[in-house]
Amino acid sequence: GWFTPDDAIWTVHGSVATFLGGIRSLLLQALHPLALAGVDRHSSYREDPFGRLQRTGAFIAATTYGSTDLAEQTVRAVRSMHTRVQGTARDGRAYSAQDPDLLLWVHLALTDSMLRAYLDFGRDGAIDPDGYVADMAVVARAMGVLDPPTSRAGLDAALLAFGPDLRVD
């Protein structure tokens, strides 16, 4: 697979704290109007919120613990599904789930949420936060993120850079 039991990603994603991280991640992702438009118009989250979380969990499990073949197959399936997620948001801007900036936002929200949940509530041993962010960058690149952060400081800076794009309305 892409990772081993010694990698921070194994510890973080094996923790029950990731349930909190997953929910936080979805809420954080929704602050970006274009990401929200894509989810609102192309996801079954309203009819099947737990199914949506389960599919995200299956993606995380496959890319974290699965064989290289399974991780690559899972990424291909999600990227294929993303080709259909495109349209126009309420404010008239076009969105696409293949947009590298939106992919980066989703990645940042997921990575930050899982890391924070683990650091605050995880009880499965110490991890290197920079190692976790670097591990998640491997998955991000496979998903089409052009330049994902590889350190916690880089993650924090990238999140702050999105501030002007985020909305609560």
What does this structure look like?
The protein is mainly α. Helices cover 63% and strands 4% of the residues. The chain has 8 helices and 2 strands; from the N terminus they run αααααββααα. The chain has helices spanning 8-13, 18-29, 33-42, 49-65, 68-82, 100-121, 129-143, 152-161; strands at residues 86-88, 94-96. The chain has a two-stranded antiparallel ribbon with strand order 1-2. It is globular. The chain starts with 7 loop residues before the first helix and ends in an 8-residue tail after the last helix. 34% of the residues are buried.
Tags for this entry?
mainly alpha, 4% strand, globular
Radius of gyration: 15 Å
Unreliable spans: none
Strand order of the largest sheet: 1-2
SSE series:
HHHHHEEHHH
Residues in β-strands, percent: under 5%
Give the overall pLDDT as a whole number.
94
Helical coverage, percent range: 55-70%
Instruction: Indicate the overall shape.
Output: globular
Largest sheet: 2 strands, antiparallel
- How many helices? 8
Structural class: mainly alpha
| Head-to-tail CA distance between termini | 41 Å
Number-wise, the strands total 2
Short description:
The protein is mainly alpha-helical. It contains eight helices and two strands, in the order H-H-H-H-H-E-E-H-H-H.
Topology of this protein?
Layout: H1 8-13, H2 18-29, H3 33-42, H4 49-65, H5 68-82, E1 86-88, E2 94-96, H6 100-121, H7 129-143, H8 152-161
Antiparallel strand pairs: 1-2
